[in-house]
Design a protein that fits this description.
The chain is an alpha+beta fold. The protein is built from 6 helices and 10 strands. The protein has a 10-stranded antiparallel β-sheet. The radius of gyration is 18 Å and the shape is globular.
Amino acid sequence: MSSGLYARAIARQLPLLGGGGDSLPDRELTLDRVQIDREHLADYDEVCGFRYRDRLPPTYLHVVAFPLALELMAARDFPLKPMGLVHVANRIEQRRPLEAAETPSLRVRAEDLREHPRGTQFDIVAEAGDAWLERSTYLRREKPGQGGGEEEPPREASAVWRVTLRTARRYAAVSGDRNPIHLHRLTARAFGQPRPIAHGMWLKARCVAALEDRLPAACAIEVRFGSPLRLPASAGFSTWEEEGARAFAVHAGRERRKHIEGRITPL
């Protein structure tokens, strides 16, 4: 499904197929009674670093809902062209753990189109009943950045991960997120990156997997994505307690740039 949707998303870059107005479509896509494929779940667990078990990782339903999100953004009435959108933030609320034997129904919609100092933002919201809620924030860059303030020095890494292009391709196969910017050097260059970059949601999942034993049964996991993690890379993972939450971050490169920072807060 996602391959065809990506072809439609790429076609939306053409002048005659771009732009669908100045408002988000008032439409919600649904996926009823999802049967969890345990082989797919095991593949996801492996590439992201989770233990094999029948309980869904908090980030897993993101990949199940992703085709619906891409279908929304690839539609001709969507106001922003999907290719080139930047995933800048993601918040997941796991209100209770979900087991693989359950059959959750998913609802996905776009909302809150708004201005941003660097362009235009909106959210993709996905829900699984009263158990799980995700809000992904995307940015269409239309203005040059003004450069943020100085970052805090990175904390000492508790683990170093080697992230390769093979990792990105394995995650693309499992998640359905086959955005060309993640898969090949030439296609990454076409989208302004000198090398392929890691999927942001793989990076989030890998951080959550590293903290799997510390996850509350009900929690909010929110992240902001920083500079892209260009592949291959050695990435340093750090974590610490912060005001009742478990904070974490990933840095890499000689400049030790921050690629993701987040917090896990009990609900």
